[in-house]
Amino acid sequence: MYKKILVAIDGSQSAYNALNSAVDLAKQFDSELYLVSVVNTANLPMNVGVSYAPGLIEDMKKASNSDLKKAHDIVKSAGLTAKVNLLDGEPREQLVRFPKENGIDLIVMGKTGTSAFTRVFVGSVTRYVSEHTDISLLVVV
């Protein structure tokens, strides 16, 4: 039923709960897993005339790669393989674009992510994806 399953990884417990559900589905349907994390380079904190802290993007990439490695280890321990993708940009837009461009059949996301600030001021990534994708979406608590 689902040939390609994307799991959005942001380091939150909700994302790892989503990963566990996706692993179960991948086993059931013999699906390919895609682990995707997005470094939010579109909403970096800036003041007028002052850029963000040097090395901030690299630190964000390191943290995301660490989250992806942990997720990949979970997938491997379940006896599966996964394609790992670290993307840059606005997470909501990337998580709508990437699945469409890669023939994903199912997006699996956690209900809430790591950033309360983002949820309040930018809006929920999960909510945005649910409203802007035409791909099946499983939201996991």
Provide a descriptive summary of the structure in words.
It comes from Companilactobacillus heilongjiangensis. Belongs to the universal stress protein A family. Its main location: cytoplasm. This is Universal stress protein. With 141 residues, the protein is an alpha/beta fold. It has a single domain (4-43, 79-140), classed as HUPs (Rossmann fold, 3-Layer(aba) Sandwich). Helices cover 45% and strands 23% of the residues. It has helices at 13-29, 56-77, 91-101, 116-121, 125-132; strands spanning 4-8, 32-40, 82-89, 106-110, 136-140. It has a five-stranded parallel beta sheet, with helices on both faces. The radius of gyration is 15 Å and the shape is globular.
Q: How are the elements arranged and paired?
A:
Layout: E1 4-8, H1 13-29, E2 32-40, H2 56-77, E3 82-89, H3 91-101, E4 106-110, H4 116-121, H5 125-132, E5 136-140
Helix pairs in contact: 3-5
